[in-house]
Amino acid sequence: MEGSGSDFDNYKTQARRLEKQIYGKLEELSALNIGAIRQAQSSLALRTVSQDLSNGAIALQNCIKSLFEKFSETISRMDEHLESLPSHSPQRKRMAQVVDRFREINRDYLLEFSRTQNALRSSIQRAELFAGDKSHRDGSNSESDMLLREKNNLNASIDMIDELIGRAEATRDGLGRQRGVFSSTADRLDQLARKFPLIHSSINRINRHRQRDKFALAFVLAVCMLFTLWYSFG
């Protein structure tokens, strides 16, 4: 009987220790639920943080389940010791009250664990939903910024092309005016050449040099325009 009472006291001590551990873990689980609720309401919710929160919740719940199994097993061992005592002995009655109290604590803690577990699951789902929505918004903003930059670059290229076309038109007008001056001068020189043969041969040489200068100028302008277009779109 003394050995039986000593074993019962050992199991009672173990049950009290498990009771305190379960209570502490349930407090941690409740705090984790509060953190998940705050994260779901925060605009800084991130998918990686939500995943860490979910992993932490799973580990904590597994730990609590393990403690409940040990607690239930300890209560069962205490019940077994009660069976070895006389049914009407005062000692058995006192021990039965202790076992009933632990069984009631186990039932209350299981109920609290179930409620907190369900609430935490919902809070984590909301946090993950907000994190996914924020990632989608960030992705949309990045795409919009990229399209805006492309639009600005395209507008800048169009403005540069317009400027090049304006310069080319101005150059063409200038060359046209110079051609008019050269044509007028050439007509006068032709008139003089017909009167003076020596002057005619000199004018022919001048015309050949002028023709080469025109080709050289046209080539330089073409190269400059091609290089500018290549630099703008290359």
TrEMBL record:
Main location (coarse class): Golgi
Gene Ontology annotations of biological process type: endoplasmic reticulum to Golgi vesicle-mediated transport; inter-Golgi cisterna vesicle-mediated transport; protein transport; vesicle fusion
Compartments it resides in: Golgi apparatus membrane
Origin superkingdom: Eukaryota
Membrane topology, record value: Single-pass type IV membrane protein
Record-linked InterPro entries: Golgi_SNAP_su1 (IPR023601), GOSR2/Membrin/Bos1 (IPR027027)
Regions crossing the membrane: 215-233
GO terms, molecular function: SNAP receptor activity
Alphabetical UniProt keywords: Golgi apparatus, Membrane, Protein transport, Transmembrane, Transmembrane helix, Transport
CC per GO annotation: cis-Golgi network; Golgi medial cisterna; Golgi membrane; SNARE complex
Cross-referenced Pfam families: V-SNARE_C (PF12352)
Protein family per UniProt: Belongs to the GOSR1 family.
Name listed for the protein in its UniProt record: Golgi SNAP receptor complex member 1
Native species: Spongospora subterranea
